[in-house]
Amino acid sequence: MKSKSFFWYDLETTGTDTALDRAVQFAGVRTDENLEEIEEGYELVCRPPLERLPHPEAVAITRFDYNEFLRKGLIENEFCRRISDEFERNETCVAGFNSIRFDDELIRQLFYRNFRDPYAREWKNGNSRWDLIDPLRAAYALRPEGINWPRKKDGSVSFRLEDLASANAVVHENAHDALSDVRATIGLARILKKAQPKLFDFSLSLRSKINVQRILNPAGKNCAVYVSPKIGSENSNLGIVFPVCSHPINKNSIICFDLKFDPSCLEELSSDALEKGLDGSEFPEEANETHLFEINTGRLPFVAPLNVLNEETLSRLNIDLDLAKERSEFLASSIVLGKKIKTSYSNRTFELDPDPELQLYGGFFTDGDRELMKETVRSEPDLLSGFSEKFQDPRLAEILFRYRCRNFPETLSSWEVDRWKGFLDHRLEKGKIIEKYISETQRLISSSGGDNIYALNRLLEYYEYVAQQIQR
User: Fold this and answer.
1) 9 with 102, same domain?
2) Inside any domain, residue 364
3) Largest distance between two CA atoms of the chain
4) Which of 209, 271, 344, 360 counts the most CB atoms within 10 A of its CB?
5) What is the β-pairing status of strands 224-227 and 128-131?
């Protein structure tokens, strides 16, 4: 999979909840495949959402002025369009730092509630996505030479962007500023590419689900190297896993077992006990965890064949390869256990959030609805209400109403304004969240002697503005 260019991006957000929080700042820089900038980097600011307030402690760090965002920011529809146009350029690989787990999820939610396909930009027209953080974790575990690895107070390696940038003399002038974070990410990518070019290129090959599935192939019954925070920092985030079976429901997921543990504990468990373990409930003392987990082949997991483990790595990470292979043979030979594990995953149920805007993963839209969604984006604001009854999917009518409220409030009737304020009042718990955040901000002001006092005072003004907007 080859890309004409990388588009590196970062988001600054109201918080860390990928479903509820919103991006307020976006920055991007386009480079060629050699990581040289080919277009000037830029930033976008979005008007902050009334229903999701920024946390005071976050603003104390970022010092963002939400009143300025309110004054200068794009409406969310336009913010979304500008990002979409950049991401959807043919043969673009969109990349970031910890973007698969965080930024990309926020982008999917943004596209979803603004009537754009949440997934197409990730694969269509030769496009793809990539994330630098797991290749860096893999470099530390497998090929640490050529990169300086910063340490936390407890002695473990820090994979925070600002720490890695500082340790490797990468310019990072303003942490928590989107454009500064993007340039620091590109700088670290250049260092990884120079220090470990084979690992860098191999990690790019994992953008293809087919390549991941070749390594994690349950039919092949071969164990594999897996680098992820799931494994734990005490093992440098590296483990040897066995692909037990394909997920019975999610075709993109492989159910794997961590071979650091003895799989015989699973054999004695009933299907009910196994299901409880998967849900995080208590387990018998001899097996308080299942050590089973899903690896989603579409989320760019860093997996590799066992031959990447040389003697030095095995010794440094204290890996008993013979024992891991013995345990994998046990799993491969136990057909009954494999069926029991698959059944346990088949029986798992997840309750869908009742809010339509939080049902991104509640099923795909029909072709007819997708065409109507495209028309919605192109439509004049005063004609949008007419689409409400045309959609087949019940989620879309409510999403359309909120889309109009956020982007085109001038088109609302008086009863729609009242309905919108009712929604805001509910989200903000009848003003209790505003009161709580005002109190927290005042506490921070009284205890702070730093440069963030101005930003916190401005934040109080913003909270007062929101309080006025939800009055009925």
Assistant:
1) yes
2) no
3) 72
4) 344
5) unpaired
- Give me the domain span that covers residue 119: 5-196
CA distance 135 to 129: 13
Domain for residue 168, yes or no?
yes
DSSP letter, residue 74: B
pLDDT at 277: 67
The verdict on 290 and 336 lying in the same domain is yes
Is residue 44 located within the same domain as residue 132? Answer: yes
Q: What is the dihedral of CA 386, 392, 393, 397, to 10 degrees?
A: 10
Q: Is the dihedral of CA 102, 108, 112, 115 positive or negative?
A: positive
- pLDDT means per 10 residues, the chain with 472 residues, are 89 95 97 96 97 94 94 98 97 98 98 97 96 98 97 93 96 81 97 98 97 95 94 91 93 93 83 66 45 93 97 94 95 87 82 94 96 97 95 97 98 96 95 96 87 92 95 80
Q: Are strands 5-13 and 128-131 parallel, antiparallel or unpaired?
A: unpaired
Q: Are residues 185 and 293 in the same domain?
A: no
Q: What local confidence, expressed as pLDDT, does residue 284 receive?
A: 35
- Alpha-carbon separation of residue 469 from 179, 452, 472 (angstroms): 31, 26, 8
